[in-house]
Design a protein that fits this description.
transmembrane helix, 5 helices, mainly alpha, transmembrane, elongated, membrane, 87% helix
Length: 153
Amino acid sequence: MRKHIKTKKYKLLFSLYFFFMTILYLGYIFLENYRINLAEKYQVKSTIIPAEIERISFFGSMITSIELIFLFLFLAVSIYCLFMERKDKKILKIFLGLNIFFYFGILVLSIFLSTFRFLPVGNLLQPLIIPIYFYIGLLIYFVWVSKNKRGTV
């Protein structure tokens, strides 16, 4: 019975995590696309007024905020999984596995969207750059801990 509660709790946690990460990512795509289209529209003009520059900067700030929230959410759930790993050894493995599928899905979506001239692949993958470094660190930690536990048994 206790295992069922843990599984249900983790299922809710990961469902909410991936729901919010997906919403943030889609919001990022929308704002980045809008900002670039706005900049291209203003570039056609011979002069850009300060209000237009301010508007483009505002959307750039919003995009940066979304990237930071994306990173914070990843770090918060990562830290939670690290602490919960003491009670349940599978949580970090599940988190790492689900994230690799999520990141792969974003990669495929980015390549697909870039073919339609929405945005360059680099812009589409930008929110993942810093979380990927942390992901690699978590993966190295997980492999190291797993290897050391097997070696001491």
